[in-house]
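Quick one before lunch.
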Amino acid sequence: MLNTKNILSIDDLSTDDIDTILSNADFFLEVLDREVKKVPALRGKTIVSLFFEPSTRTRTSFEIAGKRLNADVVNFSPSMSSLKKGESIIDTVRTILSMKVDLLIVRHSDSGIPKFISERVNIPVINAGDGTHEHPTQALLDLYTIRKKFGSVEGLKVAIVGDILHSRVAKSNIKLFKKMKMEVILVAPSMLLPEKNYFDEKVKHSIDEVINKVDVLYMLRMQFERQQNRLYPSIREYNRFLSLDIERFRRLKPESIVMHPGPVNRGIEISGEVMDLIDKYPERIKIEEQVSHGLAVRMALIYLMLSLSSEDLDSTRS
Ligand code: NCD
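Model of the N-carbamoyl-L-aspartate complex:
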């Protein structure tokens, strides 16, 4: 059981909660390898995913996770809903709740919307990515992937490279990695960093300064859709300081790993040549494994959240 009702931010989770989620994920990862990849754990429960922003892997991952636990999963598509007719978000959520739903999964392009919704409903809410704020389940699946590779994570050196300013994945990962006592180095030019280094991390401006020192090289997607102005002069410039190409890949420590939350802009964050090595080096390039692990971690999380009894929920509702 978890000590929190909602998962809105990494701040909601204690290290005990994190351990519980990741150990349960081990069990579900094993279920996913079976011929019948389903357990009846959540039969009769209903999960609604409310995605106000486009998504492929996160939405599909939550949907499959819920279905493999035998819950009913309904995808709510705002473009086809009354939201287009001017209904407020909260009225829409209330309408959905009248249908006796047990869990809401929310993604929105504005930071804070999942929290806003969670304060107005009495069922648990998972933040599936809000604006440039947080994406806690991505961070959990990333930590799980790192833990599976290295066993213990304390003291591991991780470089997070690219568009930190706009990335909710970076925000959640920085918090989670620090909580687990890993060493985090940010690699970005000043225009792709928050104005104030409120994470208090080491900052480097070129990937070459860290490439042969890190255990985990975490590449971020350049978030073009969130940049009001063109923030980086050119792709060539980006490639020079921030991209992972084959020559840099060869300079990584042999036991290190490469990660990316997807979707990858081929040729920007990571070269096509390196992407084509995923099958050859599954122990080194973890991008597809992150997706598979995401399913197990989300199954664990949903299972644990919906296993709280109603009395427990009352006592955590403060
Ligand atoms: C991320 C997201 O949407 O925040 N993608 C994902 O969930 N797999 C990262 C991104 O879009 O850069």
